[in-house]
Structures are given as C-alpha cells and as structure tokens.
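Throughout our pipeline, every protein is held as a single compact record rather than as scattered files. The remainder of this section carries one protein's record, kept here as part of the documentation.

===
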Amino acid sequence: MAEKKTTAKKAVKKSEALESKPAKERKPKVQLSPPAGGGHGKKYLAVLPKVDKNKFYPVAEVIQLVKETSPVKFDATAELHLQMGLDPKKSEQNIRGTVTLPAGTGKQPKILVLAEATDTKKAEAAGADFVGLEDMIEKIQKGWLGFDVVIATPAVMPQLGKLGQTLGTKGLMPNPKSGTVTTDVAKAVEEFKKGKVEFRLDKDAIIHMGFGKVSFAAEDLQANLNAILGAVRAAKPSSAKGTYIKKLSLSSTMGPGIKIDLNSGGYFRLGESSQSRPPVILAMNGSKISFLAFGELVVRQLTDFSNNAFAALILLIQDARTPMAVSSGGDDIMQSHES
C-alpha cells in the first residue's frame, strides 16, 4: 500500500510540473516557393522563348524548332507524342506495331536473340549482339538488361514466361505484333539494325517514340515522321470512332514540346475524322510529282525530296492501303478509285 501511495504522489507531482511549464510555441511552417523556371535548367529556359506554347505550328516549322531548341550537348533524340482517339481499355483498340524508318534511328540498337543453337548462329551472322537461351535467361534473372530489343523464336517462348515481370515492365518482352517473335531471326535482326522501331498505345492513349536525332537533316526527320504516321494509320482499328489522331507534338530529349497544326499543308495532313481517306493520287511528269493529299492538289519538284523523303511518301500511301497510280508523262493527274 505504501508503494502505491508513493507512486500516486509521484504521478501527481509530475502532472503539476507539466502544467506549470509554459507551452512551447510552435514555429510557423515556412511556405516554400516553387523553384524559378518550374524546376527547369538554364539551358532549357534559354530556348523556351522560341516556342509559343499556345500556338500550333506547320510541320516544317516544328521540325526546325525541334532542332533549334535542344538544350543538351549530346545529339538528342527527336521525339513524337501522339494523342489518339482510342480507348486503351478495349483490347482491340490497344494498337501496337512496327515501322522501318527510312532515315534510320541514328543509333545501333543492341539486340538479344533467344533461340536454339541453330537459330542463334544465324542471328549472330546477321549482326545480333547477344545470343543464347538458358544462359541468357539466367543472366536476365540476375538483373542484366544490357540490350534494346529481344527477339525470340516461337519454340522458346514457353521458357520466357519466368521473365515476364522483368521484360514486360520494360516493354522488352518478345511479341508477334512487334515482329520480335519469329522463325526467321536473321531477317528480324537485320530489320531492327536498319531502323525498324515499335510503336504502342500506352494507358493514357498516347504513343511516345523517337523518330531520329536532332542532327538529322530536316527532310530526313520528316521522312521518318511520315513513315510512322503511315504505320499508325494502317493500324487503325475498325472500332475506332471520331477523330483518330487528336493531337501531335514534337520535342527533343529534355526540350520543350511543340504542337503541330494537324491541318498544315502538303501531304502531311492529320486532322481527319475516322471516315477521311489518305492520299489517293500520285502522278509524275518530268521533274514534277503531283498528288492529292486529303483533297488538296500538291505539286512538288522531285529535287525537293531526298531519297528518304520520297520513300516515306510512297510508304505513307502504301501503308494507308490506298490505290496508287503512277504516270511517266502527261499533264493530267491519274486518279485512282477508292476501294
């Protein structure tokens, strides 16, 4: 009992001592102001005034601005960002595909081929950087990811299930839609080395991808851009409603985004509804090339096109699955009938 009384007295004295102490004044929270320039570096802020964020530019001007507004010292990647009128939650609208860039990507991708011994020899001869199967799977499981593209044969795909979490989250898992699951591994390696790239819709219905380097000539960047747009058009699902391509902007790595006027002239014309058709006419007369692009007659000198840009024009029409007529003479434009 004596111990309990002593403990009770101590508790009372402690509470009285606490009450007699003045309450500590709380320091007011310091309101941190946002960093100047929104957190961007000096080089970014130096090039930012060249771009009007509220303006939609013609494609030729955008490409030139992408080259001029790169804030980094290295040869930056030219990037495109397509806001699509698709629903990623619908499997048939979750588009994915590949396209070969006429002017290349500006870098040599490191390619890993997972296959049996006979196929790995063919892949190695075609230029694959890494080949193998069990040894490579084990290496990846330990954290190795020193490659940009993974190509596999259908026969070994069941063995890659254990890599799903590692490769899938990085967008590296082989897939038939991207041309990375194939029986002809040598051909696949050659195509990716020559500039074949993959595009895919993300969860926000946007396609992000590089289409060259800022050091490329402007016509080569436009050639690559048009090749990508042709492939994206060809991948249009039948269930898509309304405007297929809603917005398009370009930028360099770490550079400001520049919006493109979807109705800018030439054969680069994107602001169409789901019922619109791509170019349907192509005719040549001497040194001139003439074609109808979304209802507009466009006449250009062949000298206006580099080989890559001309190839991209053909790709744009062919990839859109549109009939094409070519004439070597005469002033009349040869019209092809829509199928």
Residues 265-282, 292-297, 317-339 have pLDDT under 50 and may be disordered. The first strand starts at residue 77 and ends at 84. Residues 112-189 form a domain with the Rossmann fold fold (CATH 3.40.50.790). Residues 2-20 form the longest helix (19 residues).
